[in-house]
Amino acid sequence: MSKTSTIDPHILDQAADWLMRLSASDATESDRAACLRWQQQHPDHARAWAKAELLISKLGSLPPSLSIPALDRPENLNRRAILNKLAVLLAIAPVSWGSWRTLETLGWTADYHTASGERRELQLADGTQMTLNTATSIDVKFDSEKRFVWLRSGEILIQTAPDNAHTSRPFMVGTRQGQLEALGTKFTVYQQANSTQLAVLEGAVKVTPKDADISQQIIVNAGQQLRFNRYGIESSDALDHTAIAWTQGMLMADKMPLGEFVSELARYRSGVVRCDPKIADLPVSGSFPVSDTDMALRMLVSTYPIQLTSLMQGYWINLLPV
């Protein structure tokens, strides 16, 4: 087998189990010897364990919350969930471990956050209403000069309120690509990998890319959407209501390529969802519930020439041609 080939998810699951067992405070020499024998049984076992050792070298050690449950009863559901997450992390290490670590640690230390598949509604101190989409984290800072929300990751819907306590504090949203100023408005902001997506439902929003000339500021009015990077505007279009369907708990697709659909749906569930390149361009249309991604996947399979394989109790999904 090629050294660059994918390791069987079942083997990664076993490696995650060994990682937890040996990270427990009462791990024995007998446990370590048994793990070594397992590594020697097959080259892929050794490759999987090399990933586990790389993970430990990056993180220093497993957090106690992960290692302590290692000796729980095998049927313990919390332990099973931890094993699943570790197996997924081993699958993407070392290339993406940093991104995963950022989402799992920095995101969870934000002022407000949501887990995968969760939506949360907030009311800020000034009365502004906010909805946090899946896997979203924000920081909020209000002072005498401005009202500021930093979008660390994910997507938010904002309905601003009049600032009755002060007369001139602007409402600002910051992302990695720039700054947005609400001009009495309702809008969504989506922090993507290398750009920010803005959709304005009511009022207007002023956009200032981070490294652009001040002359490149733009006012985006209701009924418009815009994507920008730190240097300027990438695209500007009429509002696509499918992009804000998440506020109603839905993922709407209109001839969306299956590969793109899978990437969007994967935002709403823990684990990995993969699409065979042979069917990545298959056009998908319909409304799918993001609050029940298992149902969304069943709808997909029942409608299109697709078959689904599930590993690690649903943490690893493969979509394949029939």
What does this structure look like?
It is built from 8 helices and 16 strands. Residues 67-75 have low confidence and may be disordered. It has 3 domains: 9-104, no CATH class; 110-243, Jelly Rolls, CATH 2.60.120.1440; 249-321, Phage tail protein beta-alpha-beta fold (3-Layer(bab) Sandwich). It has helices at residues 9-23, 29-40, 43-59, 64-67, 77-92, 97-106, 258-266, 293-303; strands at residues 112-113, 120-123, 129-132, 137-142, 147-159, 171-175, 178-191, 196-209, 218-221, 224-229, 232-238, 250-257, 272-275, 283-289, 306-311, 316-321. The protein has 322 residues and is α+β, with helices and mostly antiparallel strands. Residues 13-53 form the FecR N-terminal domain. Residues 111-206 form the FecR protein domain. This is Fe2+-dicitrate sensor. GO terms for molecular function: sigma factor antagonist activity.
